[in-house]
Design brief:
This protein is mainly beta. Helices cover 4% and strands 47% of the residues. The protein is built from one helix and 18 strands. The protein has one helix spanning 190-197; strands spanning 4-8, 17-20, 28-30, 37-39, 42-46, 50-54, 69-76, 83-89, 93-98, 101-105, 111-113, 124-131, 135-140, 143-149, 161-163, 165-167, 170-173, 175-184. An eight-stranded mixed beta sheet has the order 3-1-6-15-8-9-10-11, with no helix packed on it. Strands 2, 4, 5, 7, 12, 13, 14 and 18 form an eight-stranded antiparallel beta sheet that branches. A hairpin with a 2-residue loop joins strand 16 and strand 17 (170-173). It is globular and about 35 Å long. The chain starts with a strand and ends in a 6-residue tail after the last helix. The relative contact order is 0.25.
Amino acid sequence: SSSAAITVTPNSTDTVLQALVFLACDTIEISKAINVQICRNAVDFDGVNDYVKIADHPSLDLLSGDTSFTWMFWMKTPPRTRFDFLMRKVGGYGIDVDNDNMLFVTWGDDVWFNDALQDDDQWHHYAFVASGGEEKKLYVDGQLFETIVSPYTLSDSGDSLYLGFNNPNVLITLDMTLSQFSIWNRALDSAAIVEYMSCGAIS
């Protein structure tokens, strides 16, 4: 059957904020809309065939500078018991979830944050922060969840970036609502994370 997809045009005009996926509605171009609910600025994925596809763009290349970056978003998801891709740029980087565990993917240097996912169907804020090729942190609801010191490398495959999607050949999508997903080309500190999360999830 046909799938529901949202195609987003990255914005590279800001040297700090690499790509803001859906903050303003006019950044969203809907290619298909089947069972996709856009709640003002949040996107509701039904766990069956909804996903966001972002075409490859220089603003999604995280290889520049000292390879420090931040991925930040609001999410709510019901109790879950399976493996899913929350965000994936094939051959490059991503976030996977397995039950309540979250995998910080940098292709070959992945680290697990066990019991980090809050699957209580309430809004929670997540910030994945990588610093200087040496350290990865996860903040949940503005609080440092864990720091893992482990060297990492990055690659850029030139593929599209997907949210809530497994792969084009096996359509398995994540049941979640996602808001304010952003990619930054520097490691945000705790004060900056709290400042930006204070806007709240736009649902």
